[in-house]
Each structure stands twice: as C-alpha cells, then as structure tokens.
Amino acid sequence: MEAIDIRPALIIAQREVRDQFRDWRIIFPIVFLTLFFPFLMNFTARQLLNFVNQYGAGLVGERLIPFLLLITGFFPISVSLVIALESFVGEKERGSIEPLLTSPLADWQLYLGKLLSSTVPPLVGSFLGMSVYISGLLINRIPLPDAETLLQIIVLTITQAVVMVSGAVVVSTQATSVRAANLLASFIIIPMALLIQAEAVVMFWGRDTLSLWWIVFGLLVLAVLLIRIGLAHFQREELLGREIDVLNIRWIWRILWGSFHGGARNVLDWYRNVLGKTLLDLRGSLLAAVLLAVIVIILGAQQADRFLLILPEGDFQQRVRELGFNLPVGGIGSVQQIFFQNVRALVIGLLLGLFSFGVLGTLPLFATLGLLGYFTRIMEINQLPAAQIILSGVVPHGIVEVPAILLSTAAVLRIGFLLATPMKDKTVGEVFLMAIAGWMQVMVGLVVPLLLLAAVIESWITPLMILRLFG
C-alpha cells in the first residue's frame, strides 16, 4: 500500500501563503478591515451596555458581548474568502497555473496544498480581530464571557472558516472565471450569515451551550464532506480544458430523464430493475437515516426535562371526548391537506439538502421524530397514558408515514454520498443530476404513494381509533 505523503501539499501551502502575505493589495484590506471592525464592535458594545443598563436589562448586554465577538471573528473570513475563490480559477485566468498542474504531484496533494493556503489568511485575520476586540473589552473594563463561551466561539470560528474556504475552493475548481466564482460565492456567504443569526438566537435565548456544540458538530460534518467532495472531483486535466459552461437545458433534461427512466420498458420493469437498483444503493443512506431517527427520538425525549411543560389538571378522557365532537373524520379535503403538507415538508428537505450536500435534508426527520420523543416524555411526566395515545393517535398512520420520511431522508443523504464518491468519468454536474434523479425515483415510486396512504389513514382511521380508545 502506497504511503500518503503530505509534505508536497505543505510545501505548496507554504509557498502560497508566503506569496499572499507579500502582496500589499491582499494584506492592506484584510489588516485594515480586521483592525477597524473590532474597534467598531467595542464602541457598539460600550454604547449598548450603557443603554440597556439604564433600563435594568444587563442580562441582554452580557449576552451581547459574546455575540459581537462571534461577528468580529466572522467578518474577516467573509472578506478574505476571495483568496479561496480565486485559488484555481484565478491562476487559470492569469496563465500561471500550468507549471503547477504539470508538476509531478498527485491531484489530492495539489488540492490540499491550495486548501491549506486559502485557510490561513482568513483564520489569521479572524484571530487578529478577536484579539483586538478582547483587548478593547479589557481596556474598557467590560467583563469577558466565561471560558466555555470563549472556547465555543473560537471553535465555531475555526469550523466556519474551514466550511467557507472548503466550499469556495470547490467553487474555484468548477467555475470557468473569477466573475462566476464570485457570483457563486453567494451560495456560501448567505447560508453562513443565516447560521450566524441562528447562533445569535441560541446565545440570546438562554445561552444553551449544548445547542452551540451541536452546531459545531454539524459544521464539522459539513466541512469533512466539502473537503471530500473537492478531493473526489478535482481533475487537473478537466481544469485546464474547461473554458466556458453553457446552460444546456436539453443536456440537463437528457441526464435527468435518462437517470430517472433507466431504460425501463414499462412500469413493472422500472419498479423491478431501476427502482430496485436504487433501493439497493440506498442501503447505507437508509441505515444512517434509521440511526439518526433513533438518536433524534432520544434527544427529543431529553429536551422534555429541560423545557418542561405541565398540562392543566383534569380528566384526560373527558378532554378527549370533548375533542371528539369537533374531531374531523374523513373527507377529501382533509386527505389533501395532510398529503400536501407532508410532501411540501420533504421537498423543503430536498432544497435544504441541495445547499448543504444532504446535511440539512435531515430537518424534516428531526422535526417529526424529535417532537414525537418530546411529547411522549411530556405525557409521561404529566402521568398521561402515553402508550395508549401513541398506539391510537400516531401508530395507525405512522407505520406508513415514518418509513416514507426515512426513505426520502436517505435519498437526500445519498446526494452528499454520491458527490463525495470519486467518479473520474463523470463531472460534478452529471453526478448531481443523477443524485436528484435517484431522489425523484424514490419519491415517485414509494414515498408519494406511502404519504397518500398515510394521509387517508390519518384522516379516516386515526380519529376513530382515538375516539374508540378514549371515548
């Protein structure tokens, strides 16, 4: 087995970093903005603390300090992301990449060297800005966040930098011009900015440290996946030969329909050979979805002890009887509403998965089974017949609906797995379209019929089961 030699990648990274720090056009904007922004955040923190203290809202000010530190660390990363965006396509436009590509280096060594060199300037600027910000807090005698919060912010900054740089380098290898790479960067910066807002909610709403660590874990998974995708699809021959990508609708439709149809002669042949093969390929992703489902149910049950909900006292059966008089049983409108609601949730999961290479595609699974675990535990805490409620109100349609959600989630996860699998004879676009076609096969062949059946059961049978058991 050939030994993995990382030294050439480190040599490339060292050379690239040295050249970057020699160019004043790169250093001056990063250093100036990095040093100016912490002073602005210090001024903002001081003014806001004075303002909120006037109204006795010191807690808001205390939680504002770590958030501004997080923003201070994020700002230099977004500014210096242009270095990663032009790492390959920029040198290609300048005509300076041919000697590097003709060197006796493996593709992964060349890619890893560029990735490391593109990560150093953002992290240097980020830590410099955070150091200036913390120094300003000490000078102004503003209390620093606790040690765990500081550690979380540092780890979050590092993982966010790795995710953004990894995505930018992937864009740089696939784009045909620096202009196109800069436009595609919006698909990196906007989701990360939304993530910053989510982190702000966590920081201001109860300082839930465990949730921040879960965000760190998700970013680590996404970073590893992005690095793997970049290594899997980087080919120096394709980089040199690609001149311009033209939007070819016929080619997209041909790849998408060909992958979905699979050359089947009829519906039975499609189910037996095409969909059957897709389901066999889905085994690993389905196992991952099942494991996630078990973990989500356990986590949802644990949240019940942290966010306790005490229900009003009273006869539970009497409440169910009162509900039964207004409980809708049957009806085409009810079936349609339930069916389209479930399909819409899974389509949103697909869209989120496309932006995150499958990672965020698990949110419908998290929302459904997480709430199930949470409310099951809440019913146990309130001494309600949880087993009877689940058996009558969830199991009848859940037997059909949960497998459909698991199949859809597994198909979205498979998109990330396929993109991370090396396919030398196929481009990233072809693999991407093939993965979407696989999701469509699972949706059309199994998930949509199962969701329709689940909607019928939930509309006609589940209410009767509840009334029969408790009424």
Automatic annotation (TrEMBL):
<feature type="transmembrane region" description="Helical">
    <location>
        <begin position="395"/>
        <end position="419"/>
    </location>
</feature>
<keyword id="KW-0812">Transmembrane</keyword>
<dbReference type="Pfam" id="PF12679">
    <property type="entry name" value="ABC2_membrane_2"/>
</dbReference>
<feature type="transmembrane region" description="Helical">
    <location>
        <begin position="346"/>
        <end position="375"/>
    </location>
</feature>
<feature type="transmembrane region" description="Helical">
    <location>
        <begin position="431"/>
        <end position="457"/>
    </location>
</feature>
<dbReference type="GO" id="GO:0140359">
    <property type="term" value="F:ABC-type transporter activity"/>
</dbReference>
<feature type="transmembrane region" description="Helical">
    <location>
        <begin position="24"/>
        <end position="44"/>
    </location>
</feature>
<protein>
    <recommendedName>
        <fullName>Stage II sporulation protein M</fullName>
    </recommendedName>
</protein>
<feature type="transmembrane region" description="Helical">
    <location>
        <begin position="151"/>
        <end position="171"/>
    </location>
</feature>
<dbReference type="InterPro" id="IPR002798">
    <property type="entry name" value="SpoIIM-like"/>
</dbReference>
<feature type="transmembrane region" description="Helical">
    <location>
        <begin position="120"/>
        <end position="139"/>
    </location>
</feature>
<feature type="transmembrane region" description="Helical">
    <location>
        <begin position="280"/>
        <end position="301"/>
    </location>
</feature>
<feature type="transmembrane region" description="Helical">
    <location>
        <begin position="183"/>
        <end position="205"/>
    </location>
</feature>
<feature type="transmembrane region" description="Helical">
    <location>
        <begin position="211"/>
        <end position="231"/>
    </location>
</feature>
<dbReference type="Pfam" id="PF01944">
    <property type="entry name" value="SpoIIM"/>
</dbReference>
<keyword id="KW-1133">Transmembrane helix</keyword>
<feature type="transmembrane region" description="Helical">
    <location>
        <begin position="64"/>
        <end position="85"/>
    </location>
</feature>
<keyword id="KW-0472">Membrane</keyword>
<dbReference type="GO" id="GO:0005886">
    <property type="term" value="C:plasma membrane"/>
</dbReference>
